[in-house]
């Protein structure tokens, strides 16, 4: 019994190391988001992967670092607000009307061509919220395209690296 | 009472905004530290103007597979967003010449994001932003009202940086610091308002129209970006931000934000494809942000830090001042009706020290809950409920009453009080004069003789307004009434004089009346005019003696009567030509010659003629009559040099002397009565009467003038005095 207890830390260590390194293969995709010429505050933008039932799988990118506004992005907030994982590494500064931002999205390869979609949600203080400013299926073909937005986003361009 | 409106708004605005202002100031102090610590990272590139944009872009591309953006901060740091080998984005500070990494961009410390949030919106989102903007505006108004108060305190906008009068710590430093932080706080508040207004779309809309440029399609295509003319000529100091082309496609452009415009540039030819000039609102907003946050400038950040901290001090000291003022000021605000008061304080005072004591005594007594009435001796009347009377009076000349007490003796004999009154008299004077407190003695005698009045305390004589004597008296008097009266320290602010050296250039000996003339030349540049006073300091004791002066050819002329015991006159008499004394000019604005009046009557006796000698010199077109009273013909000889030249050359000026010991033995008031047609003509045509000399003469002359006015006009002396048409300067 004592011997077994001694092994516990070792097992835990090995276990955690194993999980840490079982990373999913990712596809970096350069992504340009161009906003329309609206007037007002900087836009909060969330890029996420949703499955075929429109449930959130993963947050890819968040533009806007001031977390007090996150609850205004209502759909995503239902997913993110529960657990609040650390998203510092995947967040950038807000941009305003007419501006654009370049970023690199790390898309898990197993989500491409597998029925998942990518969603761009936008929210601007006092101006409104778009749950699906842009949403399209994650296929290898779509990832090279330029897609027009419905709300604050004029278009998004992607380029796999 | 306009000052109270300014003070009231200053205070009310400060009170209303205090909580928000407190939050804004504290977070402001924290936020001001950020640019200072940021700058100490030392990534600033100092020769931005020598680095072409092409060199920087090339250097980055050499070092990294992919570059997303480049930013030149106002701190002088060059920041790049690059892709690493693992295809992760990374924000780094770089050396633009080599593309080498200087450091990684760190997450903004939580304390600053927290403080920014609180500072800008109080965690209340839009509502909070609105409040903060409003408070900024209020702060601006507070500063403006404060500026007005400051100017009033210092005696005019031009004198704001003059010496601040000594006072308690909070008041003194509220004034001193406000002068230094006025401008930074104004800048903070205006930029704060601007930044908030921008958030609420309150600024005029400015749609930027991109200007399509004619693109030369045959332009040369370069292989190396460093050779492209645009990238060669543009240096980093003019660049704010560069967004790199999305791909190598020539249709994907560089988007470059320069200091004054935003352009899109072809990556191969360097041709500018579109250009948008920033509208004024954008430039103003950028300037506001830099001024408000201090980013990129350590010195300005430190000033902002101190300014924010000073707001905290102003709030603290302002409230201390308010509390003190409330404590002190409450009672002076409203005096009960004269017929409701048990205690009557009557004052005879010319210089204010007596009045100052009366006011303090009034305040102290009122605070015990008693109803107290304070008035000038001239306003003596019946008091229905009065049981106590306290008379404070100074004495002038040879036992003369002060001007606001000259009618008291007559009034007293005509008015009968309904109650028996316990009284006390305090005489103010100086032991230097032979007739020490003589008028107070007269009043005391007057009251003693009246059966309606019983003394509670013997007459108290006070030398040079000695505080101890007064406090002592107040204690004793209070004890008899069973009252504990606290006496505030004097309300009078000590005048700070600037002493400058004066050289004696000419003097006469004594004439038949022991009078002599002195002429001084100021050894420093100073402005003064006839009618001002020369303050001389006979010894080290702080004793001051003032003499009315004439300005003659930029020199100061004094006429002095030598008194046997007079410290001032003996000190001056002992001077010899060439001696230099330290003295000061006291501006005596109420006795300057009126510029507007077309005619004037100048009335003087004895040495009182001095200022008039100067006034006659520099008036040309005015009808002036100078009445002068002396003892003998010989008395006037001393002034002949000054008078003859003027009278013989200017027929508009007439000189009428009279002598009390010779000829018809007339006094100057007799002359006034005799010349009443001239006097009436002058006064009814907005001319001015100026009186200078002994107080006794002044009273006699005013009595004569009063009689003349009553008999011939509806004007009163008070009315004319208020209008500045009767001016007096007597001693």
Describe this structure in words.
The complex is a heterodimer of chains A (161) and B (731). Chain A is α+β, with helices and mostly antiparallel strands. Chain A has one domain: Immunoglobulin-like (Sandwich). Helix content of chain A is 19%, strand content 41%. Chain A contains 2 helices and 9 strands, in the order αβββαββββββ. Chain A has a 5-stranded mixed β-sheet, covered by helices on one side. A 4-stranded antiparallel β-sheet of chain A has the order 5-1-9-8, with no helix packed on it. The longest helix of chain A has 20 residues, at 2-21. The model of chain A has no long low-confidence stretch (mean pLDDT 84). Chain B is α/β, with parallel strands linked by helices and 731 residues long. Chain B has 5 domains: 2-40 and 111-204 and 289-321, no CATH class; 48-94 and 207-278, no CATH class; 334-481, Rossmann fold, CATH 3.40.50.360; 497-592, Elongation Factor Tu (Ef-tu), domain 3, CATH 2.40.30.10; 594-731, Rossmann fold, CATH 3.40.50.80. Chain B contains 20 helices and 26 strands. In chain B, strands 4-3-2-1-6-7-8-9-5 form a 9-stranded antiparallel β-sheet, covered by helices on one side. In chain B, strands 10, 11, 12, 13, 14 and 15 form a 6-stranded parallel β-sheet that branches. Chain B has a 6-stranded antiparallel β-barrel with strand order 16-17-20-19-18-21. The longest helix of chain B has 38 residues, at 2-39. The model of chain B is unreliable at 329-333 (pLDDT under 50). The interface between A and B is medium-sized, with 23 and 24 residues. Chain B: The chain crosses the membrane at residues 130-150, 171-195, 298-320. Chain B: This is Methionine synthase reductase. Chain B: Its EC number is 1.16.1.8.
């Amino acid at each position: 019994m004592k011997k077994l207890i001694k092994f516990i830390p070792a097992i835990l260590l090995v276990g955690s190391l194993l999980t840490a390194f079982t990373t999913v293969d990712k596809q970096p995709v350069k992504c340009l988001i161009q906003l329309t010429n609206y007037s007002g505050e900087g836009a909060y933008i969330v890029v996420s992967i949703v499955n075929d039932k429109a449930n959130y799988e993963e947050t890819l990118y968040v533009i806007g670092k001031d977390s007090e506004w996150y609850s205004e992005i209502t759909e995503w907030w239902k997913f993110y607000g529960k657990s609040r994982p650390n998203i510092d590494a995947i967040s950038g500064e807000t941009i305003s009307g007419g501006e654009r931002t370049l970023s690199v999205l790390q898309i898990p390869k197993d989500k491409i061509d597998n029925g998942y979609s990518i969603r761009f949600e936008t929210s601007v203080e006092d101006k409104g919220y778009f749950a699906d400013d842009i949403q399209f299926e994650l296929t290898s073909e779509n990832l090279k395209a330029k897609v027009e937005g419905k709300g604050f986003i004029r278009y998004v361009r992607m380029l796999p690296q | 009472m306009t000052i109270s409106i300014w003070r009231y708004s200053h205070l009310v605005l400060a009170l209303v905004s205090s909580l928000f202002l407190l939050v804004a100031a504290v977070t402001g102090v924290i936020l001001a530290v950020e640019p200072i610590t940021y700058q100490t990272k030392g990534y600033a590139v100092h020769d931005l103007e020598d680095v072409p944009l092409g060199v920087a872009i090339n250097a980055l591309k050499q070092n990294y597979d992919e570059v997303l953006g480049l930013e030149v901060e106002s701190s002088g740091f060059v920041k790049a967003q690059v892709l690493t080998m693992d295809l992760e984005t990374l924000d780094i500070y770089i050396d633009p010449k080599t593309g080498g990494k200087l450091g990684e961009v760190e997450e903004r410390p939580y304390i600053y994001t927290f403080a920014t949030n609180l500072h800008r919106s109080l965690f209340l989102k839009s509502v909070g932003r609105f409040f903060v903007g409003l408070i900024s505006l209020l702060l601006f108004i507070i500063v403006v009202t404060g500026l007005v108060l400051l100017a009033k305190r210092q005696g005019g906008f031009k004198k704001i940086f003059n010496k601040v009068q000594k006072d308690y710590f909070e008041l003194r430093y509220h004034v001193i610091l406000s002068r230094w932080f006025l401008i930074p706080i104004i800048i903070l508040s205006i930029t704060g308002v601007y930044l908030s207004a921008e958030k609420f779309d309150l600024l005029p809309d400015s749609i930027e129209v991109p200007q399509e440029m004619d693109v030369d399609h045959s332009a040369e295509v370069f292989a190396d970006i460093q050779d492209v003319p645009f990238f060669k000529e543009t240096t980093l100091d003019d660049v704010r931000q560069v967004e790199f082309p999305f791909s190598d496609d020539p249709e994907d452009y560089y988007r470059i934000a320069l200091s004054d415009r935003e352009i899109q540039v072809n990556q191969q030819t360097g041709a500018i494809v579109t250009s948008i000039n920033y509208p004024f609102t954008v430039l103003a907003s950028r300037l506001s942000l830099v001024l408000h946050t201090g980013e990129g400038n350590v010195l300005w950040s430190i000033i902002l830090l101190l300014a924010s901290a000073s707001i905290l001090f102003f709030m603290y000291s302002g409230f201390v001042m308010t509390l003190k003022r409330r404590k002190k000021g409450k009672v002076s605000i409203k005096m009960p009706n004269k017929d409701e008061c048990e205690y009557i304080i009557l004052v005879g005072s010319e210089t204010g020290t007596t009045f100052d004591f009366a006011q303090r005594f009034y305040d102290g007594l009122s605070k015990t809950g008693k109803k107290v009435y304070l008035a000038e001796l001239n306003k003596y009347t019946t008091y229905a409920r009065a049981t106590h009377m306290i008379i404070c009076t100074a004495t002038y000349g040879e036992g003369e009453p002060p001007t606001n007490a000259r009618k008291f003796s007559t009034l007293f004999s005509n008015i009968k009080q309904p109650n028996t009154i316990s009284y006390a008299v305090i005489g103010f004077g100086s032991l230097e004069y032979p007739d020490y407190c003589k008028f107070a003695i007269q009043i005391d005698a007057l009251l003693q003789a009246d059966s309606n009045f019983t003394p509670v305390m013997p007459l108290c004589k006070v030398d040079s307004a000695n505080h101890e004597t007064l406090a002592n008296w107040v204690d004793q008097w209070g004890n008899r009434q069973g009252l504990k009266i606290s006496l505030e320290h004097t309300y009078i602010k000590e005048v700070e004089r600037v002493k400058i050296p004066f050289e004696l250039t000419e003097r006469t000996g004594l004439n038949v009346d022991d009078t002599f003339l002195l002429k001084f030349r100021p050894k420093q540049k100073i402005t003064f005019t006839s009618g001002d006073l020369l303050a001389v300091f006979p010894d080290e004791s702080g004793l001051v003696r003032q003499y009315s002066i004439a300005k003659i050819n930029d020199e100061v002329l004094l006429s002095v009567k030598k008194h046997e015991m007079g410290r001032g006159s003996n000190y001056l008499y002992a001077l010899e030509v060439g001696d230099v004394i330290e003295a000061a000019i006291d501006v005596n604005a109420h006795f300057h010659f009126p510029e507007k009046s077309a005619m004037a009557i100048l009335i003087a006796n004895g040495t009182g003629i001095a200022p008039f000698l100067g006034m006659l010199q520099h008036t040309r077109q005015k009808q002036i009559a100078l009445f002068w009273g002396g003892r003998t013909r010989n008395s006037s000889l001393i002034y002949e040099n000054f008078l003859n030249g003027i009278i013989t050359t200017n027929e508009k000026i007439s000189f009428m002397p009279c002598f009390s010991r010779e000829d018809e033995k007339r006094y100057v008031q007799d002359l006034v009565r005799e010349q009443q047609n001239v006097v009436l003509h002058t006064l009814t045509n907005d001319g001015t009467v100026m009186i200078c000399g002994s107080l006794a003469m002044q009273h006699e002359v005013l009595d004569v003038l009063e009689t003349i006015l009553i008999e011939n006009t509806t004007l009163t002396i008070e009315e004319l005095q208020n209008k500045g048409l009767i001016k007096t300067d007597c001693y």
